[in-house]
Amino acid sequence: MMILHSADLKTLNMNLPELLRKRGALLTAGNQSGCNTMTIGWAQSGMVWGKPVCTVYVRPERYTYQFMEAQDYFTLSFLPESEKQTMAFCGSRSGRDTDKIAACGLAVEYGAGDAPYFAQAELVLVCRKLYVQNLDLGPVTDEAVLSFYGPAKGGIHRAYTGEIVEAYTFS
pTM, whole model, 2 decimals? Predict the structure, then answer.
């Protein structure tokens, strides 16, 4: 296994939309006492309030939601393409019923704020929560967006915008 090293946020070259489209990411929240991870395919990154940020979206039914609510930090771990089975497993099982981290043999490390991430990742973003808000479907102008919601599909996502305070990659 290769070793992750701290990356300079000012020179980090990442294409988040492309990474998410090709691989997805593992969104992880918690601390050394316990954590959960889930596969995500939606996120945004950019600059807000003069800070580099990443925004992720979690439905209240997801087990990871309680960890996102309880902690001030969360991480995104981008695994290599060879880890497609891990990504699929973590996206199809609930941490309520399965220890996904152990089942996939993921090695947990910790960043700022005791935020858990995975040593197998090629890129890790450690984020400190700045802003949290439930999505409001009232102003949605595209009917296709509304198709993601309804009684059979689950609750409305909560958006978590976090300042990217650390990044790790291979050097």
Answer: 0.93
